[in-house]
Amino acid sequence: MIQRLPSRAVAGLVACLCFMAASTIFAQNLGKTSSSEQTTARLAADMISKYHIGQKPVDDRISQLTFTRYLKDLDPAKLYFTKADIDEFSPYKDKLDDLLKAGNVEFSHLVFQRYLQRLTERVAIAHQLIDLPHDFTVDESMVTDGDLLAYAATPEELNERWRKRIKFELVSLLLDDKTIEEARKQVHKRYDTLLKAAKGTEPSEILEIYLSAVAHSFDPHSSYMSPQTVEDFQISMRLSLEGIGAALRSIDGYVTVSEVVPGGAAEKDGRLKANDKIVAVAQDGEDYVDVVEMKLNRVVRLIRGMGGTKVKLKVVNAANETSEVVLTRQKIELKAQEVKGEIIPLETRIPGAKGRIGVINIPSFYRDFGGAQAGQDNFKSTSRDVAKALQEFDKQGGVDAVVIDLRMNGGGALTEAIEVSGLFIDQGPVVQIKEPNGKIKSYDDEDPGVMYKGPLVVLCNRLSASASEIFAAAIKDYGRGIVVGDTTTHGKGTVQHVMPISNRMFSVLNNQDLGSVKLTINQFYRVNGDSTQNRGVPSDVVLPSLVDHMDLGESFLENALAFDQVPKAAHPIYDMTPANVLAALKEQSARRIAAEADFDKIRNDVTRFDARKNRKTISLNQETLKKERDEEKAVEEIRKEEEEHETKGTNGPIFKKTPYNDEVLKIASEYVTLLRQAKTAKR
């Protein structure tokens, strides 16, 4: 249908009236929003539209996407909001952009308060449903995909969803050998904890969810980061923090020690043990703060602090004895997340094989930017740690090939991806970057020489992303080594930059930290001109894996940017991936895999997983659900085996003996042999 457009003056008046209406509706509540929230929202919206690579305005389209995303983030399974709630919110679907520009974020609080109201109502009903008798022999099912559901139009419809949800939670616990009384008690406690946690949500957390919904409307990797989130991000990049040296988790409302970190203050003191409960925290010279039922992130904030300062803990041990533990905070190196290397003599893993394979596991591309800028000699850096591992291989007599394990490596610092690539290639371009103005810039390895010249295998999976893909692509495009693993990598071909929200125009707030926006400001491209966006880096030799069949990767994310290409960058080609060598490696690996029973099991689990992952419902019949869970357990064991190296302890095996890992070693060994044969044939 074609509509006659109103005159510019009339259109402007209509827009003005719409904005005034929205502003008037919120005016009575605007005073409840802090001035820092208003400033943060206004500046964040401006920075997102100005600096995001898409160079798109915060307009009605973004408003609609934000509206949908924020509601989905709070209620993904459509268990709380009703159709009437959504109808009430709907007038703001096209107005959030204008409100944001005015610094008005009351919509986020209005919706969150309604969420808390509905959550409180639903938890009360859940407690009633938990105690009702349920027939676990009835053949009925529950929809598990919220996208397939409409918001409930009546209380009866929503009650039925909750009846099935509670029934599923109870029958799941019965299958875990709980009695019905034990199951009811556990589910009651679960919902009490859920409600208490939600009621403890701080305004800064609501703002983070809301502004991240705005940023996610531009692309899935842009977000708003509160000051606390920025701090966590910086810790992950520098692999160190100042604290007591204990990993914590929340169990039934208690902050519980899950692990004492080696080398930390807690280990040196010796009194704090795994499974101890921390019930109160005090700063040196101050009164205790009760932390039972407090959200974990707040407790962590109380315990963290400047190195050299003291923190007091009231601790309840396994014998239910309460004691006071006073610890002096210190810098803690997060050793479990740093680069590790080991040499594997092939004869210890593969009967009849000979040779030595060096394996280097890179969990992330970390870099302590503050330490680097300060000129510290020992700042944490992936490239430095990889170089140390290669030097250690040489000290131990050298290796025949090196495997770089990037499975589960979600990326990190672009600088590190370039510098790690430079350890294996001579000078030349590593990655091309498209800037917001469309200009293509090449980022080169400028350091002449290499640390290792031999055969190189890069091991990836669907969760190898971003900086991992830059490294894998450079090795592949230079013909420097082979890529082995899942069909392709994650497909994240974008670069994010964390930008502090500037408040220079607002002198009153100059001393306040308003957080940061993490924005996609660039796209990166392989030196062959292809983007890795959506498509990733394909493997030269593909191995069967469950992760490869999961819906993981950029192509499955909402608002992902599209694949495209730029001109190739001139670069040398190493003679280490001849076509006949790659073909032979593929053929021999496929033959082995087809003949090995261990891979039959993986293939069978993949077949079951593929059949199940498209199922959008789950049975509430106890016997049927038991059969489904038995199948899932077998698949889960394979998945854990594939991902285990990601969470292994500091002293655990770097490259555990599994059929998959042993096949990688066989490929590396054959790669060495085939390259030697190819060189001999040329002479």
UniProtKB/TrEMBL annotation:
<dbReference type="GO" id="GO:0006508">
    <property type="term" value="P:proteolysis"/>
</dbReference>
<feature type="region of interest" description="Disordered">
    <location>
        <begin position="624"/>
        <end position="656"/>
    </location>
</feature>
<dbReference type="Pfam" id="PF03572">
    <property type="entry name" value="Peptidase_S41"/>
</dbReference>
<dbReference type="InterPro" id="IPR036034">
    <property type="entry name" value="PDZ_sf"/>
</dbReference>
<comment type="similarity">
    <text>Belongs to the peptidase S41A family.</text>
</comment>
<keyword id="KW-0378">Hydrolase</keyword>
<keyword id="KW-0732">Signal</keyword>
<dbReference type="InterPro" id="IPR004447">
    <property type="entry name" value="Peptidase_S41A"/>
</dbReference>
<feature type="compositionally biased region" description="Basic and acidic residues">
    <location>
        <begin position="624"/>
        <end position="648"/>
    </location>
</feature>
<dbReference type="Pfam" id="PF00595">
    <property type="entry name" value="PDZ"/>
</dbReference>
<keyword id="KW-0720">Serine protease</keyword>
<feature type="domain" description="PDZ">
    <location>
        <begin position="234"/>
        <end position="308"/>
    </location>
</feature>
<dbReference type="InterPro" id="IPR020992">
    <property type="entry name" value="Tail_Prtase_C"/>
</dbReference>
<dbReference type="Pfam" id="PF17804">
    <property type="entry name" value="TSP_NTD"/>
</dbReference>
<dbReference type="InterPro" id="IPR040573">
    <property type="entry name" value="TSP_N"/>
</dbReference>
<dbReference type="InterPro" id="IPR005151">
    <property type="entry name" value="Tail-specific_protease"/>
</dbReference>
<dbReference type="GO" id="GO:0030288">
    <property type="term" value="C:outer membrane-bounded periplasmic space"/>
</dbReference>
<feature type="signal peptide">
    <location>
        <begin position="1"/>
        <end position="27"/>
    </location>
</feature>
<keyword id="KW-0645">Protease</keyword>
<dbReference type="InterPro" id="IPR029045">
    <property type="entry name" value="ClpP/crotonase-like_dom_sf"/>
</dbReference>
<dbReference type="InterPro" id="IPR001478">
    <property type="entry name" value="PDZ"/>
</dbReference>
<protein>
    <submittedName>
        <fullName>Carboxyl-terminal protease</fullName>
        <ecNumber>3.4.21.102</ecNumber>
    </submittedName>
</protein>
<dbReference type="GO" id="GO:0004252">
    <property type="term" value="F:serine-type endopeptidase activity"/>
</dbReference>
<dbReference type="Pfam" id="PF11818">
    <property type="entry name" value="DUF3340"/>
</dbReference>
<dbReference type="GO" id="GO:0007165">
    <property type="term" value="P:signal transduction"/>
</dbReference>
